[in-house]
Amino acid sequence: MDLDVVFLGTAASVPSAGRGLSSVLIRRGGDRILIDCGEGTQRQLMRSTGLADLDVILITHLHADHVLGLPGLVKTFGLRDRDKPLVIAGPAALQQFWNAMRRTVIGTLPYDVEIVPVHHEVAWRGDGYRVEAVPTEHGVPSVGYVLIEDDRPGRFDADRARELGVTDVRDYGVLQRGGDVPAVDGRIVRPADVLGEHRHGRKVVYTGDTAACGAVRDAARDATLLVHEATFLLEDSERARMTRHSTAHDAALTAAAANVQLLALTHVSTRYAPAALAEEAASVFPDVVVARDFDRIDLPFPERGGPVHEPRGVRPSRGAREGEPSTAEPLDAAIEAEA
Ligand SMILES: [Zn+2]
Ligand SMILES: [Zn+2]
Known about the structure:
This protein has helices spanning 41-46, 64-67, 70-79, 94-106, 158-163, 169-176, 191-194, 214-219, 237-243, 248-258, 274-282, 318-321, 332-338; strands at 3-9, 23-28, 31-35, 56-58, 86-90, 113-117, 122-126, 129-135, 143-149, 181-182, 188-189, 203-206, 225-229, 262-266, 288-290, 296-298, 308-310. It has 339 residues and is an alpha/beta fold. An 8-stranded mixed β-sheet has the order 6-5-4-3-2-1-16-17. It has a 7-stranded mixed β-sheet with strand order 7-8-9-12-13-14-15. A two-stranded antiparallel sheet has the order 10-11. α11 (274-282) links the parallel β14 (262-266) and β15 (288-290). α3 crosses α4 (94-106) and α10 runs parallel beside α11. It binds zinc ion (ZN) (2 copies).
C-alpha cells in the first residue's frame, strides 16, 4: 500500500515567491487527504499531483494562512460537477467560517459537504487506517492530525506450515486470515503456530501551528514521520512563546522524545535561511529535513526501508507541464456558464 506526503505549501503566515501557504496532501492507496488549505492550494495541486477528487479536508485551525484556499477549492470542485460528498473537519469555529463563505462566496454546490467539528477524536476513518485529531497549543482552538494505520498480521512462515504438515496452499490463506486448518496427520494447526508478531502500521503526524506541546509528543510516539511547524529559531524563542509557535529546536526535542523516524520542518519563515533551521534541529535530532513546496516524502512499509525525502519529488501532471490547469475535465464551459 503506497503512502506518501506531498508538501503543497510550506510558508509561515505569508506566501513568498517560492513557498505557498500551509497545505499537505497525504496519499494512501487511492485515498486523498488534504490537511490545511492555505490560499493558492488548488493551484499548487494543479501544478503537482493534479486536482484530485479529495476524500476529506482536515483543517488545523482557523487562521487565514491555513483556510483561505478552501472556498476556491470547493467551488472549483463544484464547477467540475463533483457529486461525491466531501468531509471537512476542523475545530468548532470551522462551521461559522463555512456558513459565512457558503452564504457569500460559494453559493450552491452540486455535492454534499459535511462539516465535522473535532477536538480530540477520530476525524476520518478510511479502509485500514484512521486519522485522529490531537489538541495543540496555538492560542486559538487548534488541532494536529495523526494518521494511524491498522496493525498488519505477522509474517507468514510457510516453511513452518509445511513442517507442521499443512500441504494445501489454500490452507495458507485460511491461516493468514485467522482460521484453523487440519494438518495431514489430523492435528489442528492454528494461526499463532505459523504467523509472527502483529506488525504495527505506519504513522504520520502533522502538527499545524503549535507551541511545543505534550499532546503532540505523546501522539507522535514512534511515528514514521513527524511534520512539525518551525516558525522560529531558538534565538527568537521569546517571540515563539508569545505567538504560540515552535522553534526548530522545539520541533527537534519533540521528535527526539517521541522517537520518530523522520522529522520534516514546515511553516518556514522568510526571516531565516532553511539551512539554519535544519542545522538547529539537527543538533538535537539528526534525521531532519526542511520541506519545500512540491517535496515528497515516501513512506514504505518498515521492512522495505525508512522514509525517503524526495526534494521537488512530485512529477508535474501533464496539464501542468503544458501550462494548462490539470483538471480532469475542461473547466471553460462551466466557468463561462457561471460568469
Ligand atoms: Zn500559520
Ligand atoms: Zn496559526
